[in-house]
Write a structure and sequence with these properties.
With 274 residues, the chain is mostly helical. The chain is 80% helix and 0% strand. The longest helix is centred in the N-terminal third of the chain and has 33 residues, at 2-34.
Amino acid sequence: MKRIVSLIVSALLALVLAAQDYMPTVRQALDALAQDSLVEAEDCLRRAISMQPAAKSNAILYGYLAQIRERQGRWEQALEFYSQGLVLAPSMPDLLLRRAALHLQRDNENRALADYNAVLLDNPDHKDALFFRAYIYVRQRLYKQARTDYMHLLRLEPQHEDALLGLALLNDKDRRPHEAMEQMNALISLHPTHARLYAARGGMEEQRRQFELALIDYDHAIELEPDNPDYYLSRGSLYLATKKRRQARSDFREALRLGANADEVASLLKQTQR
């Protein structure tokens, strides 16, 4: 009997000591993260979790472990850590949003959609979740659902630039070309120095075979952001479509120099040789 009591006392003492060490270890982990010492941070996070395995606050620590894995490019392990955190805190918005973003990055739209739905179930007015759910709906050609989310978001924040741009692009896809172009023109009037808006309008004009207008917008986007490879790819593709192969090659090579995907550029360069 005395031995059993002794074991119980020892176990309780160990729990008390672990509880006392938990927060200092967490603080040590956060300090290590701030210094980009990922190995030390991971070691501290794992030790803290082992001290109190059932603590709900460990959900946050699993989130930090997932972010470390993301920075290391170890996507599957990052997803596993997010999921472990959500076991402890199933409706934690930050973990759901981060996992959804990673799912989206990995082209797993349905899983991302499930996480955004979970966020919106508890908070129907969550702006980021509304925007990205609408984005997924557009990709899945669920235009009615996408429009509902964009309009909901714009009721919450009428000048939300991403939602206004998303709605204009949606209208262009959903056979509302006049409305879409009017919205793009209005959006550029609101933000005349935002390069991506000119690039987006240029894309719409190119689809309408308004090549001169598209070129003007691509030129302006490049003037505003000369180090963005995407704009050179867009202008180069326009040059290619209009048989201006020399200018297309020049833009594709510049995009490659600025960090564009080498395989994509190689494919485009081949087309300039035909």
